Fold this protein.
Amino acid sequence: MGKFQERKRQLLLIKAVEKLRHKFAVKLLLSGEENEPKYLAEITNYIKDNQLGSVVSVVKHMPWKEMGFLYQKADLFVLPSVGESAAYSILEAMGCGLPVISSDDNGTQWYIRNGENGFVFKKDDLTDLIDKIEKIIANHDYLQRMGQVSFNIATTEH
């Protein structure tokens, strides 16, 4: 959700999913505005060059009123960006009952209770991001419990 900009680090997330797809049935949906066409082209080319078209989808310019549908289809929300002061998307995802993962360079990391409703990973650290995603998706019951905690936090505190 948001914008296709290099600081959003969508390419890092794609690389994490690329590694995880050999162990789990994962799919990634990226949605955003085309703010940096060169970066979006880099993303698109990476998906094509690495034959990830069946695993990674890109949706551009999704109207805000339709984004709730995307959250409802998801099992997990990841915000890999850096230099993010306070993205609404983390709270939106939590309000839809999703476990959340954020880099430690985002102001919204403070909405995450590590191990309870998600995880915070070290910015730009692919190995740490993969580890955090795997911890959540490896256990469906854990994923569901984290989602419920996210929902409770969002509705009671925000």
Notes: The helical segments are 10-20, 37-49, 67-73, 88-95, 126-137, 140-157. The longest helix spans residues 140-157. The longest strand covers residues 28-32. The chain has six helices and five strands.
